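Hi F.,

I've been meaning to write this up properly since the lab meeting, where we talked about keeping a consistent format for the predictions we share between groups. The idea is simple: the sequence comes first, exactly as it goes in, then the structure tokens exactly as they come out, then a line or two of notes. No screenshots and no reformatting. I'm using this chain as the first example so we have something concrete to point to.
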Amino acid sequence: MLIIRRNTTDPFFNLAAEEYVLKNFDEDTFALWRNDKSIIVGKHQNTLAEINQEYVSMNDIKVVRRLSGGGAVFHDLGNLNFTFTQTSQDENLINFRKYTQPILDVLQLMGVNALFEGRNDLTINGKKFSGNAMHIWKNKVLHHGTLLFSAEIPDLTSALNADPSKFEDKAVKSVRSRVTNIQEHLNEEMDVMQFADRIETFIVEQNPDATLYELSSKDIGEIQKLRDSKYATWEWNFGYSPKYNFKKVIRTGGSGTIEINLDVHDGVIQQVKFYGDYFGILDSEEIEKSLVGTGHRKESVDRIIRSFDLSKYFANLSPEELIPGFF
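Output, unedited:
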């Protein structure tokens, strides 16, 4: 087993590194890593339905789609992540208990009564501190999990506080749980990196063939390419979302009530319809038609809306009032 160390906290790079290691390393691997503030969404999720977009934008929280399924999770520097990749001949490749057991063992050695509960969660006193997910590629397993150690729980709650009434789709929705930080349950003072050392030491002790591995310049270059071409792109992180319908009602001071309805497929707006008690000189259908074929992303919608003299279509309405209604 290779123990892979990487110190970057760039979430785009770290998610790209997982795919690169899975598909290019013959050896089994283990890695511990951290991300700056970010939301990591499951492969099959509708990204916009999982995030509080206003809060995410205001706080410069990155949004990245991962290879594995499951729900959205929040990362910051108080959150430690672990990844196993392993070649397996076992027909039952999805085995959450197998890959989370070392984490439970470490915590129980530290006097923490941590348990495996539900489908893929680790808990302390009924509160979740770890969510886990898997991806299968050929005969290889990628298992990764979060470990809330000293994360900012208010950020986690706010960033993932999406409005479910805006979306109708078939994407897998995240289930919110009561959460806790590991640090609150320890009998000794320790920071997140000291905790990481405990886990790494345990993994090495349990795997006598384990060796430390630093990513080579070639590895880093290939991961960077994958980062830039896939994991840092809107097409992967937002456009990959399944087909969905979006609806939002905005109430304005000068134009009354406007309801915005969108049909979106592969992140691209297929149909737009405005409803409401607004007045206008020109037919708003012109704006609706112009938005078809546009990505459901702020900069694209912003550019098209501002190309119109909006007050002629919606009396007394500014772009600043209408554009937030699309998200």
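Notes:
Residues 192-206 form the longest helix (15 residues).
The radius of gyration is 23 Å.

If this format works for you, I'll send the rest the same way.

G.
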